[in-house]
């Protein structure tokens, strides 16, 4: 299978969110391939492996994925497991995950061979802005992707079922927007369709006045900043955002 026609969707279950303090305890994957008809589709290349995280799994994360220390005690460590999965024989054109920034914390360029990444969360923001939420599972039930086997997608918060569900979102995104567009969107901050928090929560950016948008364009969250800036730049008479000035600079 040629690498230029395959994308590997991965999902990780971990002991926490921040390596090296936390480690991987399971990886799941599902490949999406370009068919002879020019359409992307899921294939039979899929699986999951337990990984020894090299530390105890906290109870709060056991309660999410239900993987316990005894499940992973005899499993290989991450650095010996990851390369074979992230760099499969024949190669891939990209790796993909839902909110891929999380997986990228653990799937470093050293382990992945510097592969490009597609974030299906960022792409969903662009393609399906009216979804009530953009989590993997809400998109699953809001969209009801064709061909998704309900049992294969369960239980949630386990590596293979989550990768399997994500792969259905990716397949539809690829067929709707194309590979290059998804890679471009994934390299940018998330373009949120609505304000996620604060007094304007739930409003579409187009409903906000310029003053509110300029305030949000200075937010600490890069996705909020990017979304507000994008709306401002699309408006008639836009004259540009003032560059950030430090407090010391203002005093001087």
Q: First CA to last CA: what distance?
A: 62 Å
What would you report as the Rg, rounded to the nearest angstrom? 20 Å
CATH class division of the largest domain: Alpha Beta
How confident is the prediction overall: mean pLDDT?
Answer: 94
Looking at CATH, which topology of the largest domain would you report? Nucleotidyltransferase, domain 5
- For CATH, the homologous superfamily of the largest domain is named as Ribonuclease H-like superfamily/Ribonuclease H
Key traits:
alpha/beta, Nucleotidyltransferase, domain 5, 5 strands
Explain what this protein looks like in three dimensions.
The protein has twelve helices and five strands. By secondary structure, the protein is an alpha/beta fold. The protein folds into two domains: 3-187, 2-Layer Sandwich (Nucleotidyltransferase, domain 5); 205-251, no CATH class. A five-stranded mixed beta sheet has the order 3-2-1-4-5, sandwiched between helices. Strand 2 (24-34) and strand 3 form a beta hairpin. Helix 6 (120-127) crosses helix 8, helix 7 crosses helix 8 (159-177) and helix 8 crosses helix 9. The longest helix is centred in the middle third of the chain and has 19 residues, at 159-177. The radius of gyration is 20 Å and the shape is globular. InterPro entries: Ribonucl_H, RNaseH-like_sf, RNaseH_sf. It is an enzyme of class 3 (hydrolase). Residues 6-179 form the Exonuclease domain. This is Exodeoxyribonuclease X. Its EC number is 3.1.11.-.
């Amino acid at each position: 299978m040629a690498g230029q026609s395959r994308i590997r969707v991965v999902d990780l279950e971990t002991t926490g969110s921040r390596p090296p303090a936390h480690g991987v305890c399971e990886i799941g994957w599902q490949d999406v391939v370009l068919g002879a008809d020019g359409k992307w589709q899921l294939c039979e290349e899929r699986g999951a492996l337990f990984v020894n995280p090299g530390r105890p799994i906290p109870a709060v994360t056991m309660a999410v994925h239900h993987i316990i220390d005894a499940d992973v005690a005899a499993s290989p460590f991450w650095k010996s497991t990851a390369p074979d999965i992230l760099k499969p024989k024949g190669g891939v054109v990209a790796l993909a995950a839902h909110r891929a920034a999380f997986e990228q914390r653990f799937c470093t360029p050293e382990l992945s061979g510097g592969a490009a990444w597609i974030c299906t969360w960022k792409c969903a923001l662009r393609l399906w802005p009216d979804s009530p939420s953009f989590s993997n599972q809400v998109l699953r039930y809001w969209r009801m992707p064709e061909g998704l086997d309900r049992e294969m997608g369960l239980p949630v918060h386990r590596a293979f079922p989550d990768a399997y569900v994500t792969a259905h979102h990716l397949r539809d995104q690829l067929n709707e927007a194309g590979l290059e567009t998804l890679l471009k969107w994934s390299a940018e901050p998330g373009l949120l369709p609505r304000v996620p928090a604060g007094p304007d929560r739930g409003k579409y950016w187009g409903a906000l006045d310029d003053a509110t948008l300029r305030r949000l364009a200075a937010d600490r969250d890069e996705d909020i900043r990017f979304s507000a800036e994008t709306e401002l730049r699309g408006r008639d008479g836009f004259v540009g955002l003032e560059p950030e000035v430090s407090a010391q600079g203002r005093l001087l």
